[in-house]
Amino acid sequence: MDKALEYWMTILREKKTDRATFRSAAHQISRIIALEVVQQLPTKKSNIETPIAPTTGIQFTHSPLLVPILRSGMAMLPAFLELFPDACVGVLGLKRDETTAIAHWYYQNMPRFDSETFIIIIDPMIATGGTGLETLRFLCQKGAHPDHIIYASIVSAPEGLAELKKEFPAIKIMCAGYDKGLTKDKFIIPGLGDFGDRYFGTES
Ligand code: URA
């Protein structure tokens, strides 16, 4: 693993990390993941002129559609907007029932998109994969193409990754930590606890 990523992941996972530092680590990790995601986006050659001479570079063929899943996805969004300042943002709200670990919809606000749109789903924790599956089904039913979907995350459990890949083998998943498994309460081991609670300060 990239040393900067490993360093920030250590800070993020440590239970004694205070809220401000947790937020800062989440942002630094999201920036590194966003740079990895960029590698997957199609580009074309671009002819430009420097003040001195003509030369060539690249440009992205599509501005991606960013889809943060509420609420933890909001934590990663600023890093992606730094890279794609003009990207459209579709917001989806899914809440995991803490007893059953089943995800329930409470908000959908998407801009127009089609099968050509490159969609980046932003969701820091892939635990059971329930939230991700609901999101992928929703986007694909509305016309998204799985080949054009990238799932940007921070920590995943093998159970969740397997669920996503079983139904959507074509999507690309970029993640900083590939963890061991899930507790009986469906928390990732070793994970980092409840991401949203630590980021937003709602720990009980
Ligand atoms: N969501 C979290 O915030 N943490 C987990 O461990 C699993 C899901």
Brief summary of the model shown:
With 204 residues, the chain is α/β, with parallel strands linked by helices.
Task: Using brief descriptors, characterize the structure shown.
single chain, 204 residues, alpha/beta, Rossmann fold, six-stranded mixed sheet, three-stranded parallel sheet, 34% helix, 26% strand, binds uracil
Q: Can you offer a commentary on this structure?
A:
The protein is α/β, with parallel strands linked by helices. It is 34% helix and 26% strand. The strands form four sheets. It has a six-stranded mixed beta sheet with strand order 5-4-3-6-8-10, sandwiched between helices. Strands 7-9-11 form a three-stranded parallel beta sheet. It has a two-stranded antiparallel ribbon with strand order 1-2. A hairpin with a 6-residue loop joins β4 (91-96) and β5 (103-109). The longest helix is centred in the first third of the chain and has 20 residues, at 19-38. Uracil (URA) binds at residues 125, 127, 187-188, 191, 194-196.
Helical content stands at: 25-40%
Strand order, largest beta sheet: 5-4-3-6-8-10
Give the number of DSSP strands.
13
Give, in order, the helices and strands.
HHEEEHEEEEHEEHEEEEH
Describe the main β-sheet briefly.
6 strands, mixed
Q: What's the domain count?
A: 1
Give the mean pLDDT: 96
Share of residues in strands: 25-35%
Which word captures the global form? globular
CATH architecture: 3-Layer(aba) Sandwich
The CATH topology is what? Answer: Rossmann fold
> How large, in whole angstroms, is the Cα Rg?
18 Å
Q: What's the N-to-C terminus distance?
A: 33 Å
Structural class: alpha/beta
Number of helices: 6
CATH class: Alpha Beta
Looking at how many chains there are and whether they match, the oligomeric state comes to single chain
